[in-house]
Write a structure and sequence with these properties.
Elements: H1 3-19, H2 32-38, H3 43-55, E1 59-60, E2 68-69, E3 74-77, H4 84-90, E4 95-107, H5 110-115, E5 123-133, E6 136-145, H6 153-157, H7 164-170, E7 177-186, H8 190-196, E8 204-214, E9 217-227, E10 231-234
Parallel strand pairs: 3-10
Antiparallel strand pairs: 1-2, 4-5, 5-6, 6-9, 7-8, 8-9
């Protein structure tokens, strides 16, 4: 059998087994050696088949780590109540949030400072959170706060299971809305690719959002770096005017 036909047959059989539920979403696939034994082929054919599935967004691969089954992309709605973790939990996804970095003296970009109604020289509160969805690192959230206005916000976020909406509720901000969202598709930085466990050539979605408690009170700027192979954005016609 020709080499190209061999790996394509393996790809079709592996894709069929994934569709049939032979492997659990969020779980690691067997090693390349075990897959080669399962499909009675060589590791080169397995490697080519996995590369194809990775390009299609079916699995997540990174050098030195086992491939993880991603499953169908998540459809996420952008609206005035953007709450990534809680929305996905309501939809039945297992979402785990971990704080990676928290700082009360972060330098912000000119754009972020302006969105927070601060001067570019002002330091801001900063929290970086990683969201695992069904075991897959899916979104890297960077949150910027005016800690002069909300001095306790970082303490409230630094919980075992951090939540920005819960942190705001505990300091008296019962609700807030998304004023605008800037969406960009770009290549990840080396750090982002490492944390999200994706190849450095795989695109990510960057969502820069401004959250307000009322039309004139900006309370947070959030920058979400989202894996484009696991999340698809849905924007309704009436929401287009809210996107910058």
């Amino acid at each position: 059998m020709q080499e190209s036909q061999c790996w394509k047959n393996v790809y079709r059989r592996l894709a069929s087994d994934i569709s049939a539920g032979e492997f659990c979403k969020g779980a690691k696939l067997p090693s390349q050696s075990d897959l080669a034994s399962r499909y009675q082929t060589g590791r080169h054919a397995i490697r080519r088949a996995l590369e194809r599935l990775s390009v299609e967004g079916v699995i997540s691969t990174r050098q030195g780590k086992a491939a993880v089954l991603v499953g169908l992309p998540i459809t996420y709605h952008i609206d005035s109540r953007t709450r990534f973790a809680s929305r996905l939990r309501e939809a039945g996804y297992d979402v785990r949030v971990t704080a990676l970095r928290v700082s009360d003296a972060k330098s912000a970009s000119v754009q972020v400072a302006k969105m927070l109604n601060l001067n570019a020289r002002d330091k801001v509160g900063f929290a970086e959170l990683i969201h695992h969805v069904n075991g897959v690192p899916t979104a890297l959230g960077r949150h910027y706060f005016n800690t002069h206005k909300f001095p306790d916000i970082l303490k409230e976020i630094s919980q075992t299971e951090p939540s920005v909406p819960d942190a705001f509720r505990r300091i008296g901000v019962s609700d807030y809305a998304r004023r605008s969202t800037i969406v960009e598709v770009r290549q990840p930085t080396a750090y982002e690719a490492l944390i999200l466990e994706i190849p450095p050539t795989q695109p990510v979605l960057e969502l820069l959002g401004q959250n307000v408690a009322d039309p004139s009170a900006s309370i947070e700027v959030t920058e979400a770096i989202v894996r484009a192979d696991t999340v698809k954005l849905r924007i309704e016609g009436h929401q287009v005017g809210d996107l910058a």
